[in-house]
Amino acid sequence: MQDIRNIAVIAHVDHGKTTLVDKMMLAGKLFRDGQDNSGEVLDSNDLERERGITILSKNVSINWKGVKINILDTPGHSDFGGEVERVLNMADGCLLLVDAFEGPMPQTRFVLQKALQLGLKPVVVINKVDKPNCRPEEVYEMVFDLMCELNATEEQLNFPVVYGSAKNGWMGADWKKPTDNIEYLLDLILKEIPAPKQLEGTPQMLITSLDYSSYTGRIAVGRVHRGTLKDGQNVTICHRDGTQERTKIKELHTFEGMGHKKTDHVDSGDICAVIGLEKFEIGDTIADFDNPEPLPPIAVDEPTMSMLFTINDSPFFGKEGKFCTSRHISDRLSKELEKNLALRVRPMEGSMDKWIVSGRGVLHLSVLVETMRREGYELQVGQPQVIYKEIDGQKCEPIEELTINVPTDFSSKMIDMVTRRKGDLLGMDAEGDRVNITFEIPSRGIIGLRTNVLTASQGEAIMAHRFKDYQPFKGEIIRRTNGSMIALEAGTAYAYAIDKLQDRGKFFIDAGEEVYGGQVVGEHVHDNDLVINVTKAKQLTNVRASGSDEKARVIPKTEMSLEECLEYIKGDEYVEVTPKNIRMRKITLDHLERKRQNKD
Protein backbone atom coordinates (compact mmCIF):
# COMPACT_ATOMS: atom_id res chain seq x y z
CA MET A 1 0.00 0.00 0.00
CA GLN A 2 1.28 3.41 -0.94
CA ASP A 3 0.84 6.39 1.39
CA ILE A 4 -1.27 9.04 -0.42
CA ARG A 5 -2.55 12.59 0.13
CA ASN A 6 -5.20 14.18 -2.17
CA ILE A 7 -5.27 17.96 -1.99
CA ALA A 8 -7.15 20.67 -3.92
CA VAL A 9 -5.70 24.18 -4.30
CA ILE A 10 -8.31 26.93 -3.84
CA ALA A 11 -7.83 30.66 -4.45
CA HIS A 12 -9.31 33.80 -5.97
CA VAL A 13 -8.24 34.70 -9.51
CA ASP A 14 -4.62 35.89 -9.58
CA HIS A 15 -3.68 35.08 -6.00
CA GLY A 16 -0.90 32.80 -7.26
CA LYS A 17 -2.15 29.21 -7.04
CA THR A 18 -0.73 28.05 -10.38
CA THR A 19 2.64 29.56 -9.39
CA LEU A 20 2.55 27.70 -6.07
CA VAL A 21 1.79 24.38 -7.77
CA ASP A 22 4.77 25.00 -10.10
CA LYS A 23 7.06 25.42 -7.06
CA MET A 24 5.66 22.24 -5.49
CA MET A 25 6.48 20.40 -8.71
CA LEU A 26 10.04 21.77 -8.57
CA ALA A 27 10.38 20.57 -4.97
CA GLY A 28 9.05 17.16 -5.98
CA LYS A 29 11.80 16.98 -8.63
CA LEU A 30 9.50 16.64 -11.64
CA PHE A 31 12.00 18.39 -13.92
CA ARG A 32 15.58 17.40 -14.61
CA ASP A 33 18.20 19.02 -12.39
CA GLY A 34 18.93 22.57 -13.44
CA GLN A 35 15.80 22.68 -15.59
CA ASP A 36 12.87 24.83 -14.62
CA ASN A 37 10.01 24.21 -17.02
CA SER A 38 7.52 25.32 -14.46
CA GLY A 39 6.25 28.46 -16.27
CA GLU A 40 2.61 27.74 -15.49
CA VAL A 41 2.63 24.18 -16.72
CA LEU A 42 -0.95 23.73 -15.60
CA ASP A 43 -2.37 26.69 -17.50
CA SER A 44 -1.45 24.96 -20.72
CA ASN A 45 -4.41 26.13 -22.76
CA ASP A 46 -3.78 29.26 -24.95
CA LEU A 47 -6.84 31.05 -23.58
CA GLU A 48 -5.70 30.46 -19.99
CA ARG A 49 -2.26 31.89 -20.70
CA GLU A 50 -3.62 34.99 -22.44
CA ARG A 51 -6.11 35.85 -19.73
CA GLY A 52 -3.93 34.62 -16.86
CA ILE A 53 -6.77 32.59 -15.36
CA THR A 54 -7.39 28.89 -14.79
CA ILE A 55 -10.42 27.59 -16.72
CA LEU A 56 -10.03 23.80 -16.71
CA SER A 57 -9.03 21.93 -13.58
CA LYS A 58 -6.04 19.62 -13.92
CA ASN A 59 -4.07 17.31 -11.67
CA VAL A 60 -0.40 16.44 -11.14
CA SER A 61 1.27 14.33 -8.51
CA ILE A 62 4.59 14.69 -6.71
CA ASN A 63 6.53 12.39 -4.42
CA TRP A 64 7.65 13.85 -1.10
CA LYS A 65 9.46 11.76 1.52
CA GLY A 66 7.96 8.56 0.12
CA VAL A 67 4.37 9.89 0.12
CA LYS A 68 2.49 10.53 -3.10
CA ILE A 69 0.71 13.92 -3.10
CA ASN A 70 -2.00 14.34 -5.76
CA ILE A 71 -2.44 18.09 -6.36
CA LEU A 72 -5.67 19.30 -8.02
CA ASP A 73 -5.70 22.82 -9.47
CA THR A 74 -9.15 24.49 -9.40
CA PRO A 75 -10.44 27.57 -11.28
CA GLY A 76 -10.99 30.75 -9.28
CA HIS A 77 -14.05 32.16 -11.13
CA SER A 78 -17.51 31.14 -9.97
CA ASP A 79 -18.44 31.00 -13.69
CA PHE A 80 -16.45 27.76 -13.85
CA GLY A 81 -18.15 26.36 -10.75
CA GLY A 82 -18.96 23.16 -12.62
CA GLU A 83 -15.23 22.40 -12.72
CA VAL A 84 -14.78 23.14 -9.02
CA GLU A 85 -17.63 20.91 -7.86
CA ARG A 86 -16.19 17.93 -9.72
CA VAL A 87 -12.64 18.34 -8.50
CA LEU A 88 -13.37 18.78 -4.81
CA ASN A 89 -15.00 15.34 -4.82
CA MET A 90 -11.57 13.77 -5.32
CA ALA A 91 -9.78 15.60 -2.47
CA ASP A 92 -9.40 14.97 1.28
CA GLY A 93 -8.09 18.41 2.13
CA CYS A 94 -7.58 21.81 0.56
CA LEU A 95 -4.91 24.48 0.40
CA LEU A 96 -6.63 27.85 0.72
CA LEU A 97 -4.38 30.46 -0.85
CA VAL A 98 -5.00 34.11 0.12
CA ASP A 99 -3.24 37.29 -0.98
CA ALA A 100 -1.52 38.96 2.01
CA PHE A 101 -2.81 42.38 0.91
CA GLU A 102 -6.26 41.76 -0.60
CA GLY A 103 -7.50 39.10 1.84
CA PRO A 104 -10.31 36.65 0.98
CA MET A 105 -12.31 37.76 -2.09
CA PRO A 106 -15.87 36.80 -3.23
CA GLN A 107 -14.71 34.00 -5.52
CA THR A 108 -12.58 32.45 -2.74
CA ARG A 109 -15.71 32.39 -0.65
CA PHE A 110 -17.60 30.50 -3.35
CA VAL A 111 -15.02 27.68 -3.66
CA LEU A 112 -14.26 27.53 0.07
CA GLN A 113 -17.95 27.10 0.86
CA LYS A 114 -18.11 24.07 -1.45
CA ALA A 115 -14.96 22.60 0.16
CA LEU A 116 -16.19 23.06 3.75
CA GLN A 117 -19.57 21.48 2.91
CA LEU A 118 -17.72 18.37 1.69
CA GLY A 119 -15.86 18.26 5.02
CA LEU A 120 -12.35 18.93 3.63
CA LYS A 121 -9.61 19.91 6.09
CA PRO A 122 -8.16 23.34 5.14
CA VAL A 123 -4.52 24.49 5.33
CA VAL A 124 -4.32 28.28 4.90
CA VAL A 125 -1.42 29.73 2.89
CA ILE A 126 -1.03 33.51 3.11
CA ASN A 127 0.87 34.27 -0.10
CA LYS A 128 2.69 37.36 -1.42
CA VAL A 129 4.03 38.53 1.96
CA ASP A 130 6.90 40.16 0.03
CA LYS A 131 4.46 42.82 -1.27
CA PRO A 132 4.82 46.31 0.18
CA ASN A 133 1.99 47.32 2.58
CA CYS A 134 0.86 43.70 3.06
CA ARG A 135 -1.02 42.85 6.28
CA PRO A 136 -0.71 39.10 6.98
CA GLU A 137 -2.10 39.21 10.56
CA GLU A 138 -5.26 41.07 9.54
CA VAL A 139 -5.76 38.70 6.60
CA TYR A 140 -5.48 35.73 8.98
CA GLU A 141 -8.30 37.22 11.10
CA MET A 142 -10.40 37.80 7.95
CA VAL A 143 -9.98 34.15 6.90
CA PHE A 144 -11.01 32.99 10.37
CA ASP A 145 -14.15 35.19 10.28
CA LEU A 146 -15.01 33.92 6.80
CA MET A 147 -14.75 30.29 7.96
CA CYS A 148 -17.05 31.05 10.92
CA GLU A 149 -19.56 32.66 8.55
CA LEU A 150 -19.51 29.57 6.32
CA ASN A 151 -20.33 27.29 9.31
CA ALA A 152 -16.99 25.49 9.50
CA THR A 153 -16.72 22.71 12.13
CA GLU A 154 -14.47 22.98 15.22
CA GLU A 155 -11.86 20.79 13.53
CA GLN A 156 -11.92 22.89 10.33
CA LEU A 157 -11.55 26.13 12.34
CA ASN A 158 -8.41 24.74 13.96
CA PHE A 159 -6.49 25.25 10.72
CA PRO A 160 -2.68 25.61 10.41
CA VAL A 161 -1.30 28.75 8.70
CA VAL A 162 1.74 29.06 6.42
CA TYR A 163 3.22 32.40 5.31
CA GLY A 164 5.36 32.85 2.24
CA SER A 165 5.87 34.01 -1.31
CA ALA A 166 5.28 31.42 -4.04
CA LYS A 167 6.93 33.65 -6.62
CA ASN A 168 10.15 33.79 -4.61
CA GLY A 169 9.82 30.09 -3.75
CA TRP A 170 9.66 30.07 0.06
CA MET A 171 7.16 29.13 2.77
CA GLY A 172 7.55 29.26 6.57
CA ALA A 173 5.80 29.59 9.93
CA ASP A 174 6.69 33.26 10.40
CA TRP A 175 6.31 35.88 7.65
CA LYS A 176 9.09 38.03 9.06
CA LYS A 177 11.66 35.22 8.72
CA PRO A 178 11.91 34.15 5.06
CA THR A 179 13.26 30.62 4.46
CA ASP A 180 14.86 29.44 1.22
CA ASN A 181 12.46 26.64 0.17
CA ILE A 182 8.86 25.42 0.47
CA GLU A 183 9.63 22.23 2.44
CA TYR A 184 7.76 23.55 5.50
CA LEU A 185 4.50 23.55 3.50
CA LEU A 186 5.02 20.04 2.08
CA ASP A 187 5.81 18.63 5.55
CA LEU A 188 2.69 20.33 6.91
CA ILE A 189 0.55 18.74 4.17
CA LEU A 190 1.80 15.27 5.19
CA LYS A 191 1.11 16.05 8.84
CA GLU A 192 -2.26 17.85 8.63
CA ILE A 193 -4.11 16.46 5.62
CA PRO A 194 -5.65 13.07 6.43
CA ALA A 195 -4.72 10.08 4.28
CA PRO A 196 -7.73 8.70 2.37
CA LYS A 197 -9.64 6.01 4.24
CA GLN A 198 -9.07 2.48 2.97
CA LEU A 199 -12.51 0.97 2.34
CA GLU A 200 -12.65 -2.78 1.77
CA GLY A 201 -15.30 -4.41 -0.40
CA THR A 202 -16.47 -4.44 -3.99
CA PRO A 203 -14.85 -1.75 -6.19
CA GLN A 204 -16.52 1.65 -6.62
CA MET A 205 -15.20 4.70 -8.48
CA LEU A 206 -17.02 7.93 -9.34
CA ILE A 207 -16.02 9.42 -12.72
CA THR A 208 -15.29 13.09 -12.02
CA SER A 209 -13.47 14.20 -15.15
CA LEU A 210 -12.68 13.19 -18.70
CA ASP A 211 -9.44 13.05 -20.58
CA TYR A 212 -9.06 12.43 -24.29
CA SER A 213 -6.32 10.75 -26.24
CA SER A 214 -6.49 10.50 -30.02
CA TYR A 215 -4.84 7.07 -29.62
CA THR A 216 -7.13 5.40 -27.05
CA GLY A 217 -10.26 7.61 -27.15
CA ARG A 218 -12.07 8.91 -24.08
CA ILE A 219 -10.49 8.25 -20.68
CA ALA A 220 -12.41 8.24 -17.39
CA VAL A 221 -10.65 9.95 -14.48
CA GLY A 222 -11.73 9.68 -10.85
CA ARG A 223 -10.85 8.54 -7.38
CA VAL A 224 -11.30 4.92 -6.31
CA HIS A 225 -13.79 5.14 -3.46
CA ARG A 226 -13.74 1.53 -2.26
CA GLY A 227 -11.99 -1.74 -3.06
CA THR A 228 -9.39 -2.25 -5.77
CA LEU A 229 -9.60 -1.83 -9.56
CA LYS A 230 -7.46 -4.20 -11.63
CA ASP A 231 -6.15 -4.14 -15.18
CA GLY A 232 -8.43 -6.19 -17.48
CA GLN A 233 -11.18 -6.48 -14.84
CA ASN A 234 -14.83 -6.89 -15.85
CA VAL A 235 -16.93 -4.05 -14.39
CA THR A 236 -20.41 -2.55 -14.61
CA ILE A 237 -20.96 1.16 -15.36
CA CYS A 238 -23.95 2.61 -13.48
CA HIS A 239 -25.22 5.64 -15.45
CA ARG A 240 -26.80 8.71 -13.87
CA ASP A 241 -30.24 7.78 -15.24
CA GLY A 242 -30.19 4.41 -13.46
CA THR A 243 -29.31 2.17 -16.42
CA GLN A 244 -26.37 -0.24 -16.16
CA GLU A 245 -23.94 -1.56 -18.73
CA ARG A 246 -21.33 -4.30 -18.44
CA THR A 247 -17.87 -3.68 -19.86
CA LYS A 248 -14.15 -4.34 -19.32
CA ILE A 249 -11.20 -2.16 -18.25
CA LYS A 250 -8.50 -2.31 -20.93
CA GLU A 251 -5.82 -0.32 -19.13
CA LEU A 252 -5.34 1.41 -15.77
CA HIS A 253 -3.08 4.44 -15.31
CA THR A 254 -2.14 6.43 -12.22
CA PHE A 255 -0.89 10.02 -12.32
CA GLU A 256 2.82 10.48 -11.94
CA GLY A 257 4.24 13.94 -12.35
CA MET A 258 2.42 15.58 -15.24
CA GLY A 259 1.78 12.36 -17.13
CA HIS A 260 0.20 8.93 -16.70
CA LYS A 261 1.94 5.70 -15.73
CA LYS A 262 0.50 2.27 -16.50
CA THR A 263 -0.25 0.08 -13.47
CA ASP A 264 -1.87 -3.31 -12.84
CA HIS A 265 -4.09 -2.28 -9.89
CA VAL A 266 -5.26 0.86 -8.04
CA ASP A 267 -6.32 0.76 -4.38
CA SER A 268 -9.02 2.85 -2.74
CA GLY A 269 -8.09 6.49 -2.16
CA ASP A 270 -5.85 6.96 -5.21
CA ILE A 271 -6.77 8.94 -8.33
CA CYS A 272 -6.55 7.02 -11.59
CA ALA A 273 -7.42 7.05 -15.29
CA VAL A 274 -9.39 4.15 -16.79
CA ILE A 275 -8.95 3.42 -20.50
CA GLY A 276 -11.16 1.33 -22.78
CA LEU A 277 -14.67 2.16 -21.51
CA GLU A 278 -17.00 3.26 -24.28
CA LYS A 279 -20.17 4.92 -23.06
CA PHE A 280 -19.82 6.96 -19.90
CA GLU A 281 -20.48 10.49 -18.61
CA ILE A 282 -19.17 12.51 -15.70
CA GLY A 283 -21.06 11.40 -12.59
CA ASP A 284 -21.34 7.71 -13.58
CA THR A 285 -19.97 5.02 -11.24
CA ILE A 286 -17.64 2.16 -12.18
CA ALA A 287 -18.77 -0.70 -9.92
CA ASP A 288 -18.54 -4.46 -9.38
CA PHE A 289 -19.46 -6.77 -12.29
CA ASP A 290 -21.88 -9.00 -10.35
CA ASN A 291 -23.52 -6.77 -7.73
CA PRO A 292 -22.92 -3.10 -8.68
CA GLU A 293 -23.66 -0.35 -6.14
CA PRO A 294 -23.74 3.19 -7.63
CA LEU A 295 -22.36 6.22 -5.73
CA PRO A 296 -24.48 9.42 -5.56
CA PRO A 297 -23.75 11.53 -8.70
CA ILE A 298 -22.22 15.02 -8.53
CA ALA A 299 -24.71 17.79 -7.78
CA VAL A 300 -24.11 20.89 -9.90
CA ASP A 301 -25.70 24.35 -9.51
CA GLU A 302 -28.16 25.33 -12.23
CA PRO A 303 -27.15 27.77 -15.02
CA THR A 304 -28.31 31.42 -14.72
CA MET A 305 -27.68 32.83 -18.24
CA SER A 306 -28.58 31.73 -21.72
CA MET A 307 -27.58 32.78 -25.23
CA LEU A 308 -28.85 32.00 -28.69
CA PHE A 309 -26.30 30.26 -30.94
CA THR A 310 -27.02 30.10 -34.66
CA ILE A 311 -25.21 29.54 -37.96
CA ASN A 312 -23.52 32.46 -39.67
CA ASP A 313 -25.83 33.72 -42.43
CA SER A 314 -24.19 37.10 -43.07
CA PRO A 315 -23.02 38.09 -46.59
CA PHE A 316 -19.45 37.11 -45.53
CA PHE A 317 -20.54 33.56 -44.68
CA GLY A 318 -17.86 30.88 -45.14
CA LYS A 319 -15.05 33.24 -46.14
CA GLU A 320 -12.97 32.87 -42.98
CA GLY A 321 -13.95 29.68 -41.10
CA LYS A 322 -13.65 25.97 -41.81
CA PHE A 323 -16.82 24.77 -40.03
CA CYS A 324 -19.90 26.81 -40.86
CA THR A 325 -22.89 24.45 -41.21
CA SER A 326 -25.54 23.70 -38.60
CA ARG A 327 -24.35 20.08 -38.40
CA HIS A 328 -20.81 21.20 -37.48
CA ILE A 329 -22.05 23.52 -34.72
CA SER A 330 -24.51 20.97 -33.37
CA ASP A 331 -21.81 18.27 -33.14
CA ARG A 332 -19.40 20.67 -31.46
CA LEU A 333 -21.97 21.69 -28.82
CA SER A 334 -22.83 18.08 -28.00
CA LYS A 335 -19.10 17.31 -27.65
CA GLU A 336 -18.76 20.22 -25.22
CA LEU A 337 -21.64 18.90 -23.11
CA GLU A 338 -19.69 15.71 -22.36
CA LYS A 339 -17.12 17.51 -20.23
CA ASN A 340 -18.66 20.90 -19.39
CA LEU A 341 -20.97 20.00 -16.52
CA ALA A 342 -22.64 23.37 -15.93
CA LEU A 343 -23.63 23.81 -19.61
CA ARG A 344 -27.10 23.07 -21.06
CA VAL A 345 -27.99 23.03 -24.77
CA ARG A 346 -31.47 22.72 -26.30
CA PRO A 347 -32.55 23.21 -29.92
CA MET A 348 -34.88 26.19 -30.44
CA GLU A 349 -38.43 25.18 -31.23
CA GLY A 350 -39.35 25.33 -34.89
CA SER A 351 -35.80 25.85 -36.09
CA MET A 352 -33.09 23.48 -37.30
CA ASP A 353 -30.12 25.83 -36.96
CA LYS A 354 -30.65 27.67 -33.66
CA TRP A 355 -29.77 26.49 -30.14
CA ILE A 356 -30.34 28.00 -26.71
CA VAL A 357 -27.10 27.48 -24.74
CA SER A 358 -27.26 28.10 -20.97
CA GLY A 359 -24.32 28.53 -18.60
CA ARG A 360 -23.08 30.12 -15.40
CA GLY A 361 -22.44 33.63 -16.71
CA VAL A 362 -21.18 35.70 -19.64
CA LEU A 363 -17.57 34.58 -19.04
CA HIS A 364 -18.50 30.88 -19.05
CA LEU A 365 -20.34 31.25 -22.39
CA SER A 366 -17.79 33.57 -24.01
CA VAL A 367 -14.93 31.14 -23.25
CA LEU A 368 -16.90 28.48 -25.16
CA VAL A 369 -17.45 30.86 -28.12
CA GLU A 370 -13.79 31.91 -28.12
CA THR A 371 -12.63 28.26 -28.04
CA MET A 372 -14.91 27.39 -30.98
CA ARG A 373 -13.70 30.41 -32.90
CA ARG A 374 -10.08 29.31 -32.49
CA GLU A 375 -10.95 25.83 -33.71
CA GLY A 376 -12.16 27.32 -37.00
CA TYR A 377 -15.92 27.64 -36.40
CA GLU A 378 -18.10 30.43 -37.76
CA LEU A 379 -21.26 31.22 -35.83
CA GLN A 380 -23.51 34.00 -34.59
CA VAL A 381 -24.63 34.58 -31.02
CA GLY A 382 -27.45 36.68 -29.65
CA GLN A 383 -27.70 38.92 -26.62
CA PRO A 384 -27.10 37.10 -23.26
CA GLN A 385 -30.40 36.60 -21.42
CA VAL A 386 -31.00 35.89 -17.75
CA ILE A 387 -32.93 32.70 -16.89
CA TYR A 388 -36.05 33.58 -14.89
CA LYS A 389 -37.83 31.14 -12.57
CA GLU A 390 -41.32 31.15 -11.13
CA ILE A 391 -41.24 30.61 -7.35
CA ASP A 392 -44.58 30.59 -5.44
CA GLY A 393 -46.32 32.23 -8.41
CA GLN A 394 -43.84 35.14 -8.51
CA LYS A 395 -41.41 35.89 -11.34
CA CYS A 396 -37.91 35.63 -9.84
CA GLU A 397 -34.48 36.46 -11.25
CA PRO A 398 -30.90 35.57 -10.24
CA ILE A 399 -29.24 38.03 -7.83
CA GLU A 400 -25.46 38.31 -7.48
CA GLU A 401 -23.23 39.67 -4.74
CA LEU A 402 -20.94 42.24 -6.35
CA THR A 403 -17.74 43.66 -4.82
CA ILE A 404 -15.99 46.65 -6.35
CA ASN A 405 -12.61 47.73 -5.00
CA VAL A 406 -11.73 51.31 -6.12
CA PRO A 407 -9.77 54.36 -4.95
CA THR A 408 -11.94 56.40 -2.56
CA ASP A 409 -12.35 59.28 -5.07
CA PHE A 410 -14.39 57.09 -7.43
CA SER A 411 -16.69 55.46 -4.87
CA SER A 412 -19.66 57.79 -5.46
CA LYS A 413 -19.53 57.14 -9.22
CA MET A 414 -19.60 53.37 -8.62
CA ILE A 415 -22.56 53.59 -6.22
CA ASP A 416 -24.46 55.76 -8.70
CA MET A 417 -23.82 53.31 -11.56
CA VAL A 418 -24.83 50.19 -9.65
CA THR A 419 -27.95 51.68 -8.04
CA ARG A 420 -29.20 52.75 -11.47
CA ARG A 421 -29.06 49.08 -12.41
CA LYS A 422 -31.31 48.16 -9.45
CA GLY A 423 -28.36 47.31 -7.17
CA ASP A 424 -28.56 47.73 -3.37
CA LEU A 425 -25.59 48.94 -1.34
CA LEU A 426 -24.75 46.45 1.44
CA GLY A 427 -21.59 47.92 2.93
CA MET A 428 -18.33 49.86 2.49
CA ASP A 429 -14.93 49.13 4.08
CA ALA A 430 -12.04 51.55 3.67
CA GLU A 431 -8.55 50.05 3.31
CA GLY A 432 -5.97 52.82 3.15
CA ASP A 433 -6.74 54.97 0.08
CA ARG A 434 -9.02 52.31 -1.48
CA VAL A 435 -12.53 51.25 -0.56
CA ASN A 436 -14.33 47.90 -0.86
CA ILE A 437 -18.00 48.39 -1.79
CA THR A 438 -20.43 45.44 -1.59
CA PHE A 439 -23.75 45.35 -3.46
CA GLU A 440 -26.61 43.01 -4.25
CA ILE A 441 -27.47 43.35 -7.92
CA PRO A 442 -29.60 41.40 -10.45
CA SER A 443 -27.51 39.36 -12.91
CA ARG A 444 -29.05 41.45 -15.71
CA GLY A 445 -27.44 44.54 -14.20
CA ILE A 446 -23.95 43.03 -14.40
CA ILE A 447 -24.13 42.54 -18.17
CA GLY A 448 -22.17 45.44 -19.64
CA LEU A 449 -21.22 46.85 -16.24
CA ARG A 450 -17.50 45.96 -16.28
CA THR A 451 -16.62 48.20 -19.25
CA ASN A 452 -18.46 51.17 -17.73
CA VAL A 453 -16.91 50.66 -14.29
CA LEU A 454 -13.38 50.50 -15.74
CA THR A 455 -13.96 53.63 -17.82
CA ALA A 456 -15.41 55.60 -14.91
CA SER A 457 -12.60 54.60 -12.52
CA GLN A 458 -9.81 55.19 -15.09
CA GLY A 459 -9.04 51.46 -15.09
CA GLU A 460 -8.47 51.27 -11.32
CA ALA A 461 -11.49 49.18 -10.30
CA ILE A 462 -11.28 45.50 -9.34
CA MET A 463 -14.68 43.88 -9.79
CA ALA A 464 -15.82 40.42 -8.65
CA HIS A 465 -19.25 38.88 -8.39
CA ARG A 466 -20.83 35.54 -7.47
CA PHE A 467 -24.33 34.11 -7.76
CA LYS A 468 -26.30 34.39 -4.51
CA ASP A 469 -29.93 33.29 -4.98
CA TYR A 470 -33.20 33.95 -6.81
CA GLN A 471 -35.29 36.94 -5.67
CA PRO A 472 -38.51 38.57 -6.99
CA PHE A 473 -38.10 40.56 -10.25
CA LYS A 474 -36.68 44.03 -9.58
CA GLY A 475 -38.18 45.90 -12.55
CA GLU A 476 -36.81 47.15 -15.86
CA ILE A 477 -33.16 48.13 -16.21
CA ILE A 478 -32.08 50.62 -18.86
CA ARG A 479 -29.13 49.03 -20.65
CA ARG A 480 -27.39 50.92 -23.42
CA THR A 481 -28.81 54.36 -24.15
CA ASN A 482 -26.98 55.07 -27.44
CA GLY A 483 -28.21 53.83 -30.81
CA SER A 484 -26.12 52.05 -33.44
CA MET A 485 -24.68 53.38 -36.68
CA ILE A 486 -25.46 50.88 -39.42
CA ALA A 487 -23.84 50.49 -42.83
CA LEU A 488 -26.25 51.08 -45.72
CA GLU A 489 -24.64 48.86 -48.35
CA ALA A 490 -21.78 46.41 -48.90
CA GLY A 491 -18.35 47.62 -50.02
CA THR A 492 -15.09 49.00 -48.71
CA ALA A 493 -15.19 51.72 -46.06
CA TYR A 494 -13.46 54.91 -47.22
CA ALA A 495 -11.56 57.36 -45.01
CA TYR A 496 -13.35 60.22 -46.82
CA ALA A 497 -16.78 58.94 -45.73
CA ILE A 498 -15.71 58.12 -42.14
CA ASP A 499 -14.08 61.54 -41.76
CA LYS A 500 -17.32 63.33 -42.67
CA LEU A 501 -19.35 61.18 -40.21
CA GLN A 502 -17.10 61.33 -37.16
CA ASP A 503 -19.19 63.93 -35.35
CA ARG A 504 -22.14 61.47 -35.42
CA GLY A 505 -20.48 58.96 -33.07
CA LYS A 506 -17.53 56.62 -32.58
CA PHE A 507 -16.59 53.93 -35.11
CA PHE A 508 -15.82 50.22 -34.72
CA ILE A 509 -14.22 49.95 -38.18
CA ASP A 510 -11.14 51.41 -39.87
CA ALA A 511 -10.84 52.80 -43.37
CA GLY A 512 -10.21 50.02 -45.88
CA GLU A 513 -12.28 47.36 -44.08
CA GLU A 514 -14.94 45.43 -45.97
CA VAL A 515 -18.47 45.99 -44.63
CA TYR A 516 -21.94 44.77 -45.58
CA GLY A 517 -25.38 46.37 -45.39
CA GLY A 518 -26.86 45.95 -41.90
CA GLN A 519 -23.48 45.68 -40.12
CA VAL A 520 -23.14 47.78 -36.95
CA VAL A 521 -20.13 49.99 -37.73
CA GLY A 522 -20.31 52.46 -34.84
CA GLU A 523 -22.18 53.92 -31.88
CA HIS A 524 -24.47 56.88 -32.51
CA VAL A 525 -24.32 59.87 -30.15
CA HIS A 526 -28.14 59.87 -29.85
CA ASP A 527 -30.47 57.10 -28.73
CA ASN A 528 -31.85 56.23 -32.18
CA ASP A 529 -30.26 54.03 -34.86
CA LEU A 530 -28.70 55.82 -37.81
CA VAL A 531 -28.11 54.30 -41.24
CA ILE A 532 -24.95 55.73 -42.83
CA ASN A 533 -23.05 55.21 -46.06
CA VAL A 534 -19.40 54.52 -45.24
CA THR A 535 -18.61 53.27 -48.75
CA LYS A 536 -19.01 56.69 -50.40
CA ALA A 537 -15.87 57.78 -52.28
CA LYS A 538 -14.82 61.32 -53.06
CA GLN A 539 -15.99 62.64 -56.43
CA LEU A 540 -12.98 63.94 -58.33
CA THR A 541 -13.38 67.40 -59.93
CA ASN A 542 -10.95 69.39 -62.01
CA VAL A 543 -10.81 72.28 -59.50
CA ARG A 544 -7.21 72.85 -58.52
CA ALA A 545 -7.63 75.75 -56.09
CA SER A 546 -5.56 75.54 -52.93
CA GLY A 547 -7.53 74.74 -49.78
CA SER A 548 -10.32 72.87 -51.53
CA ASP A 549 -8.63 69.57 -50.82
CA GLU A 550 -8.30 68.75 -47.12
CA LYS A 551 -6.88 65.45 -45.95
CA ALA A 552 -9.23 63.05 -44.21
CA ARG A 553 -8.40 62.73 -40.53
CA VAL A 554 -9.72 59.47 -39.09
CA ILE A 555 -9.76 58.75 -35.33
CA PRO A 556 -8.61 55.14 -34.69
CA LYS A 557 -11.48 52.67 -34.24
CA THR A 558 -12.74 51.44 -30.84
CA GLU A 559 -11.47 47.85 -30.36
CA MET A 560 -13.88 45.56 -28.54
CA SER A 561 -13.25 42.09 -27.09
CA LEU A 562 -15.75 39.25 -27.47
CA GLU A 563 -17.20 39.79 -23.97
CA GLU A 564 -17.57 43.52 -24.57
CA CYS A 565 -19.42 42.85 -27.85
CA LEU A 566 -21.76 40.37 -26.14
CA GLU A 567 -22.51 42.89 -23.40
CA TYR A 568 -22.87 45.73 -25.91
CA ILE A 569 -25.40 44.40 -28.43
CA LYS A 570 -29.12 45.10 -28.22
CA GLY A 571 -31.91 42.54 -28.49
CA ASP A 572 -32.26 42.98 -32.29
CA GLU A 573 -28.52 42.45 -32.93
CA TYR A 574 -26.15 39.48 -33.28
CA VAL A 575 -22.40 39.10 -32.77
CA GLU A 576 -20.89 37.37 -35.80
CA VAL A 577 -17.86 35.34 -34.70
CA THR A 578 -15.33 33.99 -37.23
CA PRO A 579 -11.71 32.84 -36.72
CA LYS A 580 -10.42 36.19 -37.98
CA ASN A 581 -13.04 38.77 -37.02
CA ILE A 582 -15.74 39.65 -34.51
CA ARG A 583 -18.44 41.84 -36.05
CA MET A 584 -21.78 43.14 -34.81
CA ARG A 585 -24.84 43.24 -37.06
CA LYS A 586 -28.59 43.75 -37.05
CA ILE A 587 -30.60 40.50 -37.18
CA THR A 588 -32.56 41.94 -40.14
CA LEU A 589 -29.96 43.27 -42.56
CA ASP A 590 -32.20 45.11 -45.03
CA HIS A 591 -32.83 48.74 -44.09
CA LEU A 592 -36.38 48.91 -45.55
CA GLU A 593 -37.35 45.57 -44.01
CA ARG A 594 -36.29 46.85 -40.56
CA LYS A 595 -38.45 49.95 -41.04
CA ARG A 596 -41.44 47.77 -41.88
CA GLN A 597 -40.90 45.60 -38.80
CA ASN A 598 -40.67 48.65 -36.54
CA LYS A 599 -43.97 49.95 -37.91
CA ASP A 600 -45.69 46.63 -37.19
UniProtKB/TrEMBL annotation:
SUPFAM superfamilies reported in the protein's UniProt record: EF-G C-terminal domain-like (SSF54980), P-loop containing nucleoside triphosphate hydrolases (SSF52540), Translation proteins (SSF50447)
Q: Which keywords appear in this protein's UniProt record, sorted alphabetically?
A: Cytoplasm, GTP-binding, Hydrolase, Nucleotide-binding, Ribosome biogenesis, RNA-binding, rRNA-binding, tRNA-binding
Class in the EC hierarchy, top level: hydrolase
Which sequence ranges are marked TM in the entry? none
Q: What is its EC number?
A: 3.6.5.-
What is one process in the GO biological process aspect for this record? ribosomal large subunit assembly
Q: Which residues bind GTP?
A: 14-19, 127-130
Q: Which InterPro entries match?
A: BipA, BipA_C, BipA_GTP-bd_dom, BipA_II, BipA_III, BipA_V, EFG_III/V, EFG_V-like
Look up the domain of life of the source. Bacteria
Q: Where in the cell is it found?
A: Cytoplasm
Q: Which reaction does it catalyse?
A: GTP + H2O = GDP + phosphate + H(+)
Any one GO cellular component localisation term in the record: cytosol
Q: Which Gene3D superfamilies match?
A: 3.30.70.240, bipa protein, Elongation Factor G (Translational Gtpase), domain 3, P-loop containing nucleotide triphosphate hydrolases, Translation factors
Q: Which Pfam families match?
A: BipA_C, EFG_C, GTP_EFTU, GTP_EFTU_D2
Tell me where in this chain the Tr-type G domain is found.
2-197
The UniProt GO MF terms for this protein read: GTP binding; GTPase activity; ribosome binding; rRNA binding; tRNA binding
Name the SMART domains for this protein. Answer: EFG_C (SM00838)
Q: Quaternary state and partners of this protein? A: Monomer.
**Family to which this protein belongs:** Belongs to the TRAFAC class translation factor GTPase superfamily. Classic translation factor GTPase family. BipA subfamily.
Report the PANTHER family cross-referenced here.
Answer: TR-TYPE G DOMAIN-CONTAINING PROTEIN, TRANSLATION ELONGATION FACTOR-RELATED
Question: Which function does this protein serve?
Answer: A 50S ribosomal subunit assembly protein with GTPase activity, required for 50S subunit assembly at low temperatures, may also play a role in translation. Binds GTP and analogs. Binds the 70S ribosome between the 30S and 50S subunits, in a similar position as ribosome-bound EF-G; it contacts a number of ribosomal proteins, both rRNAs and the A-site tRNA.
**Protein's UniProt name:** Large ribosomal subunit assembly factor BipA
Q: Which species is listed as the source?
A: Prevotella histicola F0411
Q: What gene is behind this protein? A: bipA
